Amino acid sequence: MNAQTQPVPFRIDVPQAVLDDLRARLARTRWPQGSEGESWNYGTNLGAMKALVEYWQNGFDWRAQEARLNQFPQFKAEIDGVGIHFIHVRGKGANSMPIILTHGWPDSFYRFYKLIPMLTDPARFGGDPAQSFDVIVPSLPGYGFSDHPQDRSVTLVKTADLWFKLMTEVLGYDRFAAGGGDFGSQVTRLLALRHPAQVIGIHLTDLGYAGDPVFPPDLSNLTPAEQGYLGATQGWFYREGGYTMIQSTKPQTLAYGLSDSPVSLAAWIIEKFHTWSAKPDAYSQDELLTNVMIYWVTETILTSMRPYNQQIDAADKLQAGQHIEVPAALARFPKDLGATPPRELAERSLRIQRWTEMPRGGHFAALEEPELLAEDIRAFFRDLA
Question: What's the pTM value of the predicted model, to 2 decimals?
Fold first, then answer.
């Protein structure tokens, strides 16, 4: 093991000056003109935003949230010159399976804070104690408390290789499971594609979209269901994909406002939590603001958008005729982005062994419906142990 990969304990401790500056900025908010009753279809609701900011100023306690996050064992390790922040909680069982869970945008490692104890200590939640996991939750490069590369060289492909080294060289696991959603789904599939001998299986909450590095490259001879899905996805992007276009073309232009105004940052992020979730009250104000704060205190909104703008070499993408042979599960939550993909489309690139259409929930399933997700993960990997 190289010396630079040795993990060191990490605790979140935001300087008080950062919090004082935030409070001053919130007090100077200049609100846009508009109706407080305007539909969320027009963008982040003004009345809801004013109520959230009032709570942010007068009720939200970051130090309490910081202490809650610091109850998880956290570490940083330098891997190939990139400092990676991660949570590592060992399971209560005698033979806990290691699993690395990867978040996406605009969430953070915080996405999994409810899921972690359900996987590490299933008996506490009425589950079988023999089905416990060692849970590793890293922050993507450019997110949260991981390093923030100032160029676009740390692609999702490179991230998958960093995760492989984190699990094998830093933490010493011979084989491990993986799961995630959003960008986490892409990283998880890339892990399985590039390191199949070490990956026990992968659990996904979405298939991604045409153009990502591990979406099925061969879209010839589509079934009617596949054609319908791709058409519905295109329609969804027409209605809801403006954020993708700006973040994949001119992210720096957007970042000036989001980096300077905490209200602007919060509005940009919580609109997605509202739109991509099954119900508008899926999350508490504390949960919404804790996730926003992770972006604010680390100044990572621009670097978090870099994956939308990265150019990935063709050789690093799934090739026509190539198949990810690691056992795979897909749990589809009905209010996730776009339409539900047909199983045959997933099977063009994945060895699907479990397919679950959930009764409720949306894009941030680990935060919105952690019980459903935990049970599906346990059921899938129970047969692979």
Answer: 0.96
Q: Is 209 a catalytic residue?
A: no
Amino acid at 68: R
CB 262, CB 26: distance < 8 Å: yes
d(CA 38, CA 20): 32
* Catalytic residue of the set 161, 286, 308, 316: 308
Task: Find the CATH number of the domain harbouring 236.
Answer: 3.40.50.1820
Strands 97-102, 350-357: pairing is: unpaired
- What is the number of domains present in the chain? 1
Q: Which of 182, 212, 336, 376 is catalytic?
A: 182
Active site includes 281?
A: no
Q: What range defines the domain where residue 53 resides?
A: 3-382
Q: Which of 85, 103, 274, 363 is catalytic?
A: 363
* 138 close to 3: Cβ distance less than 8 angstroms: no
Let me know if 85 is a catalytic residue: no
pLDDT for 195-227, tens place per residue?
A: 999 999 999 999 988 888 999 888 889 999 999
Specify the DSSP class assigned to residue 106.
S
> How far is the C-alpha of 65 from the C-alpha of 287, rounded, in Å?
9
CB 80 within 8 A of CB 162: yes
pLDDT tens column, 323-359: 999 999 999 999 999 889 999 999 999 999 999 999 9
Which residues, at least 6 apart from 317, have a Cβ–Cβ distance to it below 8 Å?
A: 213, 214, 217
